[in-house]
Specification:
The structure holds 2 protein chains of 2 kinds.
Chain A (H helix, E strand, L loop, with lengths): L3 E5 L2 E7 L3 H9 L2 H7 L6 E5 L2 E3 L1 E3 L5 E3 L2 E6 L2 H25 L3
Chain B lengths: L2 E3 L7 H17 L1 H12 L10 H19 L27 H6 L17 H8 L4 H5 L10 H13 L13 H19 L36 H5 L1 E3 L6 E2 L3 E2 L4 E3 L5 E6 L2 E6 L4 E4 L9 E4 L5 E5 L4 E5 L10 E6 L2 E7 L11 E2 L6
Parallel strand pairs in B: 1-2
Antiparallel strand pairs in B: 3-12, 4-9, 5-6, 6-7, 7-8, 9-10, 10-11, 12-13, 13-14
Helix pairs in contact in B: 1-3, 3-8, 7-8
The chains are: A alpha+beta, B alpha+beta.
Chain lengths: ~100, ~350
């Protein structure tokens, strides 16, 4: 996937080269088993929403999952970022309504 | 060992209270956070989208349940059937059950917030149950793998609950365990009707084609082969899937277990073991009067006994001993009512113990 930047509902979504972040982190943890499990991965891009990094991973079938929105698996990382923005906004709205309605 | 996992709706208030208390203890000890961390660590590395999805989570739940039982030996993980229980106003989310964790553990639930959020339907579950092979069952029939258990039935409840439950740290929300217990039960049910426990194959070879004897991530001394026979090897059973009690199996107060047809059930309540129809018509009971018994167990020699563990006293027993290997307490044979203790080929004990009649004792 190529680096790119776009706007979505007033939020910026950016993909840029990550300089081997994941492998460095795994090596730092000494995770041999993890390295075995990550073999053959594509070179990673960093995902930023509103200039804040959003952590994600790639499942064995190549689909992407975000750490904070982990059960919506998409082939396109930008599409996934858009869905995450929609989810986050709706979730905030629901929590506000619950607070004002007093639901636990 | 030998506990029943059942629908949370069948739990008594005491059982709910005990389960919730045990969860708080595990949270304070850091066990809940530790399990969540393990889950997050391996999230994209092979515990999803491979054939190890189901066995890995089965092992995880088993280990978590053992931790719960260190706190309270009568506790087992209940399940949440999200096809039937599909509203934020369901008793599942009551303040005295899972609702309290939302604020106490800062879970940020936001029911229905995810785009296109929905829960699985009974029709989806029934269709999936018909799938003839393990791959088509958990992964699906299409190349994308979007219509199998994992994506179409397992993922939606995570998204529907939202908040922490929608993240890779989802085991921080106790709803994770009730949801995955149900997923495990669906697998158990499928195993029971599709060629038994041997029906397990590796993922398609283009991915990680981990198979029956490949190590599970995190617990490398364990493989799917260790968890396939959950009743025999892990010592738990499901209220509506497993229809016999085996040696070592236990019923605690308010526990029940259904017969294969669903027409009959065992119920342990008020210190009495009862065999009854599913609409509560009593066919047999261990004693007429309430006892102080709080644990009913089928012992290794074939004796069915009720103990009062508070006084370390046996309050009732069937006096059936010298049972053949692999015996079990059955409710039906060949779809006909036949309540009693039988050997593996249906042969009765010598002397036989089958009820009714008489309808007591």
């Amino acid at each position: 996937m190529e680096p790119q930047r776009q706007e979505y509902k007033g939020h910026s979504i950016e993909l840029r080269a990550s300089e081997g972040r994941e492998e460095e982190e795994v090596r730092a943890r000494g995770g041999r088993e993890e390295l075995r499990a990550t073999e053959g991965r594509e070179e990673e891009l960093e995902l930023l929403i509103d200039n804040q990094p959003v952590r994600y991973g790639q499942l064995p079938d190549g689909r992407y999952a975000l750490e904070e929105y982990a059960y919506d698996w998409q082939e396109n990382l930008t599409d996934l970022a858009r869905r995450f923005i929609d989810y986050r906004e709706k979730a905030e709205q629901i929590r506000r309504e619950d607070e004002s309605g007093g639901r636990e | 060992m030998g506990r029943v996992r059942k629908n949370y709706k069948g739990m008594s208030d005491v059982q709910k209270k005990n389960f919730v208390s045990a969860l708080y203890v595990l949270k304070n000890k850091g066990v809940v956070d530790n399990f969540a961390q393990i889950h997050a660590k391996w999230f994209t590395l092979g515990i999803h989208r491979t054939s190890h999805f189901l066995p890995w989570h089965r092992e995880m739940l088993y280990r978590f349940e053992l931790e719960l039982q260190k706190v309270d030996s009568s506790v087992s993980i209940p399940y949440w059937d999200s096809t039937a229980d599909n509203s934020p106003s369901s008793p599942l989310w009551d303040k005295n059950f899972l609702g309290q964790f939302n604020t106490d553990w800062n879970l940020g639930r936001a029911f229905g917030a995810a785009p296109g959020s929905h829960l699985p339907t009974l029709q989806q579950v029934q269709n999936n149950h018909q799938r003839p092979t393990y791959n088509t069952f958990w992964y699906g029939t299409d190349q994308q793998g979007l219509d199998g258990l994992e994506v179409s039935i397992h993922n939606p409840p995570h998204q529907w609950v939202g908040g922490v439950m929608a993240t890779d740290y989802s085991p921080l929300d106790p709803a994770f365990y009730l949801h995955h217990c149900w997923i495990d039960m669906l697998w158990a049910s499928w195993q029971g009707s599709h060629g038994g426990p041997q029906n397990f194959v590796a993922s398609p070879s283009t991915w990680r084609n981990w198979g029956l004897y490949d190590p599970l991530l995190e617990w490398s001394d364990r493989t799917p082969a260790n968890v396939i026979n959950y009743h025999r090897d892990l010592g738990y059973r499901y209220d509506i899937v497993d229809h016999a009690m085996w040696a070592g199996d236990v019923l605690y107060p308010s526990d029940y277990q259904f017969s294969p047809s669903g027409k009959y059930m065992l119920m342990f309540k008020n210190g009495i073991l009862g065999f009854q129809t599913s609409d509560q018509k009593l066919l047999w009971q261990s004693t007429q009067a309430t006892t102080t018994g709080n644990r009913c167990i089928l012992e290794s020699d074939g004796n069915l006994a009720i103990y009062d563990d508070t006084n370390n006293k046996k309050v009732w027993e069937s006096n059936t001993h010298n049972a053949p290997p692999q015996f079990g307490l059955q409710m039906e044979q060949h779809w006909e009512v036949k309540f009693g203790i039988y050997g593996p080929s249906g042969e009765p004990l010598k002397p036989p113990w089958s009820r009714p009649p008489p309808n007591t004792g």
